[in-house]
Design a protein that fits this description.
By secondary structure, the chain is an all-alpha fold. 63% of the residues lie in helices and 0% in strands. Helix 4 runs antiparallel to helix 10 and helix 5 packs across helix 10. It is an enzyme of class 4 (lyase).
């Protein structure tokens, strides 16, 4: 873990290297937020990062959503998830599914991607497989706009948990 005071002293490149992975394969968020430092608290840093996402416009927001892996998708089954995603999916019980459960997740992933054009994103660390499956059922009824908003809300939760793992205090 690092202290926020240390992070506040980082160059742009150091900040992007350390804070960039808080948002899945989207270092641009840390890059665009760097100039706002110093941050008084970890929560202030999180809010600044989230404001960068909120002001990015729909195209960049959708690319951020698309940077996330499918739950129990190809990357998970092939073992190519980021360390963060691997741990998060495991914490939800998604690394110990039966073949029927894997098939159900893949069916839901396909239906969701077909409807919205991006993967289903939910904060796995705050859910278990049953709640995630229920989330698919509920959120597949949403409009694309509602789903962009829902996915971004889940991404903010994921980012906060990742920041908590990274930054002391």
């Amino acid at each position: 873990m690092m202290k926020l005071a240390q992070i506040n002293l980082f160059s742009r490149d150091e900040f992007v290297l350390v804070i960039g992975p808080v948002f899945e394969h989207s270092p641009w968020i840390a890059e665009e937020t760097w100039a706002q430092k110093p941050f008084a608290t970890k929560e202030e840093l999180h809010r600044a990062l989230c404001r960068t996402v909120e002001s990015a416009g729909e195209e960049k927001q959708v690319k951020l959503i698309q940077a996330h892996p499918d739950l129990v998708g190809r990357a998970a089954l092939a073992g190519t998830l980021t360390q963060e995603s691997k741990g998060e999916q495991a914490s939800a019980g998604l690394s110990a599914l039966s073949p029927d459960e894997v098939a159900l997740f893949q069916k839901n992933n396909a239906a969701y991607r077909e409807k919205f054009g991006f993967p289903f994103v939910i904060c796995a660390r705050l859910n278990k497989k049953e709640a995630i499956l229920k989330g698919f059922e509920i959120r597949l009824k949403n409009t694309r706009g509602e789903e962009i908003k829902a996915a971004l809300g889940e991404i903010e939760k994921i980012a906060l948990l990742r920041l908590n793992d990274l930054v002391a205090g």
